[in-house]
Amino acid sequence: MANHCNGNSGGAFKMPEIKFTKLFINGQFVDSVSGKTFETRDPRTGEVIAKVAEGDKEDVDLAVKAAREAFDHGKWPRMSGYERGRLMMKFADLIEEHIEELAMLDSLDAGKLLKMGKSMDIPHCANMLRYYAGAADKIHGETLKLSSQCQGYTLKEPIGVVGHIIPWNFPSTMFFLKVSPALAAGCTMVVKPAEQTPLSALYFAHLAKQAGIPDGTINVVNGFGATAGAALCSHMDVDKISFTGSTEVGRLVMEAAARSNLKPVSLELGGKSPIIIFDDADVDMAVDLAQKAIFYNKGEICVAGSRIYVQEGIYDEFVKKAAESAKGWVVGDPLDPDVHQGPQIDKKQFEKVLQYIEHGKREGATLLTGGKPCGEKGFYIEPTIFTDVKEDMKIAQDEIFGPVMSLMKFQTIEEAIEKANATRYGLAAGVLTKDLDIANRVSRSVRAGTIWINCYFAFDPDAPFGGFKMSGFGRDYGLNAIEKYLQVKSVVTPLYSSPWL
């Protein structure tokens, strides 16, 4: 079944000027110590967009030194929460003034839809900054009721120098998911963007300086995980690591932290999120939601709804409508406003997704639609749906990170819960039903950090987000996220002749 393949990238499009390609350390754009650079490529064509400074251990050392100086002796942690919030608000305003340019950088670097970047991703970054700016002066300790003749209270102190390692699928969103609460807490930081998508992070560093955020507070070191990322994780003067990425690399991050200074780590890792659709759900709504849950952002999303469980009463109708609907899902140039799905991030990911599709066929799943590359050049893949998928198949167990839906049937609530939990991951889940009792039971039974009932991708700055099981630990979003960047200190003093205790 052919999808509408609009495939190749726009000939008439004029490449924007790439303004920032160096490292950003202590408020300055600088070359790497080695002078080395690496190429960042456009996944629409595979062509080079720009050469970017390649940071390594020596550059990480310089960035950490700048962040340490800014934390130990600089203004940022010594400002009131109100003052920090004011500068964060200014930073957010500057982002809004540059929405077009920032969205374009993520489209070029990551193959993301330009219309979504302009309407959602970049405005969401500004909103996240504002949310945490409002929280910066509301970080409270507690007064304690001690059993002895003493007065006690707790302080919540910024943890210090933070290393943020961010992924390539949502470069801007992930930057602010980590940077915003850390700034509010009063921390300084070194950000290591994914090597595939360094351009927007460097632009944000420039805007932070324009907003008046003191030098050394935010540093950006582009580079590769095995070099720059590893140096950050094992650095003896980094107080905390926040990582979003694969479960495999998450293990390495924890290991490096344990072997060095036992710095705390928060991890947001892979997912194999189920969507459970009950007989009483509206089938058209369910098809539309399931399709967006897996094909949005070309399936390159940690909470992609990649396992779709449909109750037997509506299964056949769902399959028929899902196949039909996939035909109207337009794959093509992400700069085209009529396109639904751009290219996978790079050749490696493109080939990995196609290999999983071959696994699915070999293991006996039925290819309902899609399954092939799209167009003559670039890393485009048709939206793909498999039926007759069994729980033990690779396509049902592994995070594919591509536009591949596994469609499965169930009979009872108990069976749906059991199947939904038959995964090593636990990031998110969707439940579609009009029955409140079913919604309540399933949402309490599925072991995942976020449950969306009759919706999906309903992210909000106030809703904590993170994983159960091998999807990691620690929460982004919400006031919980600030706690990751704070330490609790108890202060006790004796009381003499107090009229009450």
UniProtKB/TrEMBL annotation:
Residues 29-491 form the Aldehyde dehydrogenase domain. InterPro entries: Ald_DH/histidinol_DH, Ald_DH_C, Ald_DH_CS_CYS, Ald_DH_CS_GLU, Ald_DH_N, Aldehyde_DH_dom. The active site is at 268. Keywords: NAD, Oxidoreductase. It comes from the Eukaryota. Pfam families: Aldedh. One of its GO terms (molecular function) is aldehyde dehydrogenase [NAD(P)+] activity. Signal peptide: none annotated. The keyword Oxidoreductase applies. It catalyses: octanal + NADP(+) + H2O = octanoate + NADPH + 2 H(+). Homotetramer. Belongs to the aldehyde dehydrogenase family. This is Aldehyde dehydrogenase 1. It comes from Phoenix dactylifera (Date palm). The gene is LOC103720725.
